[in-house]
Amino acid sequence: MKTRFNTYDIVCVIAELQSFIGMRVNNIYDIDNKTYLIRLQRTEEKQVLLLESGNRFHKTNFEWPKNVAPSGFSMKMRKHLKNKRLESLAQLGTDRIVDLQFGSGEAAYHVILELYDRGNVILTDYEYTILYVLRPHTEGDKVRFAVREKYPQNRARDSGVISKEKLIEVLTNAKAGDQLKKVLVSNLEYGPAVIEHVLLKHSFPNSTKIGKNFDPMENIDKIMEAIRDAENIFQNSKSGQTMGYIIQKKEERPTSDSNTSDFYSNQEFHPMLFEQHSAMPHKSFPTFNEAIDEFFSSLESQKLELKAVQQERDAMKKLENVRKDHDQRLVALEQTQSVDKQKAELITRNQELVDKAILAIQTLLANQMSWEDITEMVKDAASKGDPVASQIKGLKLEINHISVYLSDPYADSNESDVENDDKIPCMTVDLDLALSAFANARKYYDQKRSAAKKQQKTIESQSKALKSAERKTKQTLKEVQTITNINKARKTYWFEKFFWFISSENYLVIAGRDQQQNEIIVKRYMKQMDAYVHADIHGASSVVIKNPTGNPIPPKTLNEAGTMAICYSVAWEAKVVTNAYWVWGEQVSKTAPTGEYLTTGSFMIRGKKHFLPPSHLVLGLSFLFRLEDGSIERHKGERKVLNANEDDSISLADSEMSKDEVEVEILDESDEDELVKTSDENTVNIEKTDATNNVDDEDSSDSEDENNTKFPDTRIKIQHFSGTKNIITESSKEFEEEQNEENVIYLGDGKPIVIKPSQNNTRSRGCSESSYKKQRSMEEKEMKNELKQQPAKRGQKGKLKKIKEKYKDQDEEERKLRMEILQSSGTAKDTKKNKKNKDSSDKSKKPAPKAPRIFTPKEPNEDNIDDDDTAVQADIDMIDALTGVPVTEDELLFAVPVIAPYNTLANYKFKVKLTPGTARRGKAAKTAVAMFLKDRAINQREKDLLKAVKDEQLARNIPGKVKLSAPKLQNLKK
């Protein structure tokens, strides 16, 4: 398959791209480390030029996937080439080197593209001093391709039409037997395709070899004429646009019903239809650039098709092997029967000779002679003409057998009897010394009958086996075609390059995989109405909750994003539970208070941080299915915000292992030693935990102080809504005071730097001691009544006691203010009223701190309303088309693997729980998919979609080594 340009291709593409001269560079992107896109534009015209080092350059209309972060070379070219005009596009000499000049005079820059060997891309200034080189290297002893070196312009070859004398010299020096085309290609610049074309035009086939069937001196004029034709083709192509052709190859696609369907694979691209390709299938295009663009843009889909064709061929080959195996077994059984019958008949017809041979050897063995002596005696007897010894051809005394050469004693030696059907060929027969001649013959007859029975059984089972093999082959062909179609229809979403999930309330949450992606998420994708979430630990990812509607983000989504931030940090490997916080998008900046620009992945957090409760390190693996447009309406409102009085079937208790769940450690050999080492540490930790849970009341104050140092901002209040316990955790007043009006810089290593103001604001408690005592006594009575009505779970009594002691000083006003911080349930009227009362009561005192700000998006300008609404609706429609709960009536297009907090996946059809463990993530992901495929509730379409998901997509979002667990896992395994 042709994958790189030759000289003729370069000439044709440069001629077509002359229309780009005068266009300005809008931007530059990189697809991979050697392929770059230059976006050009001028009035009402936009074009994209693709450069691939060593292979190609052409105009493209295909939407290529760009790298998430631009490479250093892209940034360098952007710096020097952006807004520059393309002034010239030319080939250096006749070599495969292209020079693109941007700008003029001393402001000119050159991009030099080398399309031979390993290729190269070089950026130089107007004097051809190298500013950046993609592949630094040295050619020979002097020419260096490195920064600040001069690019040698005279290195390109510049050869015109070869003279007749030079051609004679080239052909004379060629070796006898060399191919004529090969000799000319190495000495001319036209390329193998053009030379082969002109040679065929002048009756020189590819088989023409110098010195064998061809004399070059006799045909020198015809060869010169062919070379002139090649030169004319080159000159004509420089004049303007040429057509494009893709040469194809017919691939027969086998099917199970012995029919074949054709598939055409692209093999080569050319600017004209050469003589050697005229009889081959091909596609034509108006321009050569269009042909190249189509050829390379369809490479991936063609690879999928070729892979499917190969799998189909393998399946049909297996079926054919089954047929051949059955046929060979039948033939072998037939031959076995014939040979055994002949041996038995030979023994019967030579019964006297056989008995004598057996008796002779038995006698020698009875005399306790060694096997070597017996062999020597048989040889001596045979040499002396003994009739019995001469027929013994071998002794197999280790198995108590001898080999005797037998012939038919009744066969007539006349030639007329040669055609007699009863004639038995002479052969060597193995005889058992423990049996008589008659018994040996009967043994062979028994073997013949056994082979006949096997043959009959093989014939009877053949039809069943072939039908079973055909059924499996049909199923394989169907699966291959289905998976191929799924992969073709598979749409890669823009957020899949990041860590991501869709919250239980239909918010898209994305997070960076590294510092560069953190930078891109904040600068490119985060808006003012979005929420920025980060774990309070170093090495965490930047998490952004996309909020296209501008409505307040519910607490459940914030907590899920906090769980994600903690899990995608060092806390996963360290198995440490910590906090996360969130701020509005407008609070995140790249500029420090000193005006200094922060490094990649570092951000400045201005104002107050809203801390979230600690989260368990529990994720889940599941699949979202892309719905066909007609099935989307059926799942509308599937992920919605639940009110406080609605029954929420998922509580924080779901993060604990249920009684039906089984944890499964998938261990590798390398992990076993580590597990043994950590077992002792776990035992110590368990003992410490037991000791802590059994502390006396006298030590409650010490334990409270210790807990306050670990979790200084946590208060837990248990409320009951429709029989379900919701646990609301709020930030403490003291921590709010400390964080109020602070500036926090989050550095790339995760360590925050807090810049405190000169004045520390404080606020009063806002209630008298007597009212507090009354309220506290009422709360204690309510708590006791709740505990009496309902038996406490194991360990709950001690926890409630600690909670009561720890948060005994909190009043109702503090609770409501903290609910505002977390955006918890509560009426806006009450909040405003309390705020007004507080402001009036505290007016005479110190200035009150600013209330927690609930971000309200600004009204958009009238000119941008349509664009904003369109973008918001596009994001909502995109995630609404994905469901984790497919039903039978749905038409599913493809499956997308998702890693999310386990509570988010509560209602999903397929899910497994992931916690920090020792299993490698790839193996855990495969195990999870195998479990899903064994689920009784899965249908065939869902199986096909899960099988089509690639292994690298399954495990790429798992944070590290894991422990796998799932409900009713043992039943699924059975």
UniProtKB/TrEMBL annotation:
Pfam families hit by this protein: NFACT-C, NFACT-R_1, NFACT_N
UniProt domain NFACT RNA-binding: residue ranges: 497-607
Annotated compartments: Cytoplasm; Nucleus
Keywords linked to the UniProt accession: Coiled coil, Cytoplasm, Nucleus
Ranges of compositional bias, category Basic and acidic residues: 776-787, 806-819
GO molecular function: ribosomal large subunit binding; tRNA binding
Compositional bias per record (Polar residues), positions renumbered to this chain: 681-694, 757-770
Superkingdom assignment: Eukaryota
Biased segments, Acidic residues type: 695-706
Coiled coil: 299-336
Composition bias, Basic residues: 794-805
Any one Gene Ontology BP term: rescue of stalled ribosome
Any one Gene Ontology cellular component term annotated for this protein: nucleus
Region (Disordered) residue spans: 452-471, 670-714, 752-868
Residue ranges constituting the NFACT protein C-terminal domain according to the UniProt record: 874-964
Sequence similarity: Belongs to the NEMF family.
Annotated NCBIfam families: RqcH_arch
Name listed for the protein in its UniProt record: Nuclear export mediator factor NEMF homolog
Organism: Psylliodes chrysocephalus
